[in-house]
Amino acid sequence: MTIEMNAETDVNQVVDTIDVALPRWSSKEAEAIHGMPFNDLLFLAQTVHRQNFDRNRVQLSRLLSIKTGGCPEDCGYCSKSAHHETGLKATKLMEVERVITEATKARDAGATRYCMGAAWRHPKERDMNALIAMVEGIKALGMETCMTLGMLELGQAQRLKAAGLDYYNHNIDTSERYYPEVVSTHTFADRLQTLGHVREAGIKVCCGGIFGMGEEKADRIDMLVTLANLPEPPESVPINLLIPIKGTPLAEAGPLDPLDFVRTIALARVMMPKSFIRLSAGRTAMSDEMQALCFFAGANSIFVGDTLLTAENPGEDKDLLLFRRLGIEPMAVEAQ
Ligand code: SAM
Ligand code: DTB
Ligand code: SF4
Q: What is the pTM of this model?
């Protein structure tokens, strides 16, 4: 596929060009789309969005940290790494019953997917039974399940799939080129290997990254190219805006132009037309207007509730109000 983009390009023609099964993207094509005049880019992204999704519905997920702090990995953005002085206390894996109680509250408040995160390099054998019980218990509530537990062996992925795990979140976070600037205790290739295990086990893939870590525009674009060119693109693509955490190496990484952030959401929507694009961490630092632009650019999933794993998120009241102002409705689980 060759896409030439300039101010005279007819956006409708571009839509026709890319509406083919499993497109493969080059960095050059992605860069051309990313650099379109803002109005053309947003029009293109919105056109692709409404061809593939109910345009006024947004999926709601709820997060819970089931094991906080003390992580042996050194990810430069993360409050939970034992390598950084963030003042966070390490906890043990949460009791299964407590997880189910929290999930029930989230379901009653309208969330359709429950996402559990653990600050591990990888889960240990002794944790597997509790993890399986959590998945089974939450499935019994009629919710979708998602976990993010670090690296996963194929056998572990298969056991979680058998328990009913719908999604596994494992982010590539940035471009392959910039990855070593962000973390040294595992590699970009390690991340891709776990993603392969998750896919092979038949679990849906949730994979995205963080913008605003001091990376270049080319890193943001290449991260999205890597995701779009996976043998199958992730069903869910979380786009996080860095939440600067005091004590982490990336705490001073510096702000990102909000309009550049919106451009990356639009590019993700165009290159991965059938994936959910999740406007993830960092919404407390975004204006309502910026979030509205992100939804227009094709974001159609968010985390609800006033905490993410450890950091702040807009509370349910604030999100409800914004949805009302925008005429957006939450998506039902059957529609996902
Ligand atoms: N240990 C697991 C792993 O690394 O996959 C799961 C937990 S980790 C917190 C999940 C994702 O949250 C990271 O890959 C990153 O994209 C995002 N994240 C973590 N801290 C963040 C921060 N301060 N700002 C924005 N996103 C963040
Ligand atoms: C993802 O991409 N973002 C979520 C989820 N996957 C697990 C996590 C955001 C974490 C934000 C920082 C914190 O709460 O510690
Ligand atoms: Fe944080 Fe996950 Fe990295 Fe551990 S592996 S430091 S929890 S992002």
A: 0.93
